[in-house]
Structure of FAD-binding domain-containing protein:
Amino acid sequence: MAFSSLASNRLRVIIVGTGFAGLAAAIACARQNFAVTVLERSSGLSPHGDSILFGSNASKLLHRWDVGADMYKRGASRGKWIFKTQQGEDIWVEDLDEFPAIYGAPILQGKRASFLGSLGVEARLLGVQIRYESEVVKYWDSAEEPAVVLASGEVVSGDVVIVADGVHSPARHLLASRDRPAVPKRPSGYSIHRAVMTSGAIASDATCADFLDGTIRTWVGDDCHVCTYPMEHGNALAFTFTHRDEQREASLDWRNKKPIAEATEQLDASWDPALRAVLAHFPSTLHWQILDETPETEWISAGGKIGFIGDAVHAMMPTSLQGGSQSIEDAATIALCLAMAGSDPAGVRVALETYESLRRPRVQQAQSLGKQQQDLWHSFASRASSSTSSPPRPSSLRPLSFALYAHDAEHFALVNFPAYAQANDPDFVMQRRWVVEAARNAGIDLAQVPRPPAGGHGSTSESDGPLEVLRERGNGSERAAESTAKVLRTRRSTLLRRRS
Ligand SMILES: Cc1cc2nc3c(=O)[nH]c(=O)nc-3n(C[C@H](O)[C@H](O)[C@H](O)COP(=O)(O)OP(=O)(O)OC[C@H]3O[C@@H](n4cnc5c(N)ncnc54)[C@H](O)[C@@H]3O)c2cc1C
């Protein structure tokens, strides 16, 4: 059996998976000068999938990491988002060009494979080692030196393992204990058809050439909705059609393509003729079952050195419009927590516990907004037709996820880490220079991070200073994080009591 103990005097980080969560974590960790190795079972970055959207909350991090500008160039992230009735009448228009001014960064909307490529290049430029055809088949959940075993039999050990192996997360099953088995994800009762095609045939069809004009369009029907997304500056178009599917006939495999008729036959003549015309050009559709998710109970392994991020710990409904974005926030937060805990193996457990405390309430909020969004969009048509006295407001179609866009996950971690680390481990002694260095490595000027009102409860080993009281003003997630920290502390001590 071959052993690779990643030799380095820097914190040795092993990341499993090269989806957005894994690559973003690789970039954020490399920016903190950690020695990063990413293990991916496939032979390269996945070419699968179609359109993906990153909200301003993720986009501001990606821009700070110098990769957002490239994604912005590759995507179709400006223009309008128009909401329509099933018949094609405009109900609400959102001006995406205003988003940088309102939320601090544009949305990034484009082809999944292309965006993944941008992150892959950046990770390599930062010295990240990406090893393809390296499937992890076993985890060693050691409190001293965690390790993974590859299908080849090679053992790779490090100081921390970050699991970003996606919605089906083999790691979750490999790490589950007999008394706490991994919970299988539940079908939500809805499925989504999705596809992407290059623009040729659409561009030459006068009835639907408008679809390539840079506008995102959403039609709300009876318990369903359809979206079209322009990509690559009008050179490609993607669509999604989300509908009730009690039969659960949809697949769970991103490669399982079906004839387009399986989608279009559900959109009868009452639907917008332009939409029907454009969808007729797509050769096939991928029919994907939407899984209902609550965040997993365990975000960290019992040994305290293996943490989960991205879909592996909290898949999102597509209507949350936050699947990719929350992965980026996870990645940013976990890297900063490791750095603020001293960039040292001894600080890994408190770093991972604090990452969970900071992230769990936010993730729950995004998941819950996704469910509410689906209900709102899917009931709009029936509420509009049944209610004459108080019809639903057109603005109620505005995506609820916009409420998450102003957040800056890195600021939030810098502000709240000291208090939550202390809450998770009262013996943890933090040095202010760890925060200063973490912020500097992340490219953040601490003086620009919003100062909290007097009486903040942060504490460091040194005397009062700006870091001690850095907290985001008026941010509801902070209150939620406080109560989560309490719940997690109680649960952890119950677990520890049970183990001893
Ligand atoms: C093929 C594919 C296509 C998608 N297309 C879209 C889309 O079009 N639109 C959209 O909104 N969302 C799409 N998604 C989902 C979206 O990418 C995620 O919600 C989000 O980006 C977070 O992903 P993640 O990095 O947590 O997981 P994923 O993107 O699922 O990445 C997980 C990675 O881990 C690797 N992996 C798994 N097990 C192992 C193992 N044992 N050893 C080593 N590597 C392992 C996988 O090969 C994969 O590369 C897609 C996901 C996938 C996998």
